[in-house]
Write a structure and sequence with these properties.
The complex is a heterodimer. By secondary structure, chain A is of the alpha+beta class. Helices cover about 40% and strands about 30% of the residues of chain A. In chain A, strand 1 and strand 2 form a beta hairpin. Chain B folds into 2 domains: about 35 residues, no CATH class; about 55 residues, IHF-like DNA-binding proteins (HU Protein, Chain A, Irregular), CATH 4.10.520. The chains are: A alpha+beta, B alpha+beta.
Chain lengths: ~100, ~100
Amino acid sequence: MIRSELVQKIADENPRLSQRDVERIVNTIFDQVTEAMAQGHRVELRGFGAFSVKKRDGRIGRNPRTGEAVEVEEKHVPFFKAGKLLRERLNGNEAGE
Amino acid sequence: MSENTLTRLDLAEAVHDEVGLSRNDSAALVESVLGHISDALVRGETVKISSFGTFSVRDKAARIGRNPKTGEEVPIHPRRVLTFRSSHLMKNRVAAGNRKG
């Protein structure tokens, strides 16, 4: 499923909303998640999962072509962990119990 | 927004602010988005949200695990796990937003 198919499903279920509004709603949700992480915050969606930011320490890397040592600065990367309910549903327990 | 954690409530509030739907309707739409993503994953589909990231389901083989406390061997059944790969746009925004100084 891609973004536009998700928008279509939501639009089909909500005939009183325009396609454009549904797009704005879906975009708002994903943008909020990204924006929260950009501010170093967590996003906790019970049953679905949690987005968080992980710190990667700086290290000495190596240019694989030349073998030259290069300093890689510390950085922060997005991380997602699936929630319990979703993990259980993926493994055939529809009730998630 | 609450201190350092965003929740469904914050997402519903953002939808309410953006399109002026009632808070109830906004909350229902947030739930619906998460529900459709979950359902697709449970069907085994990959969910690819451009400029956000890709959720995919992977099959893990059975293996023998070990209880780290007792050293006892326990079988781990084959299972499906969910992985998320963030888009470059998200990686860049998260890296830029958290850069020190």
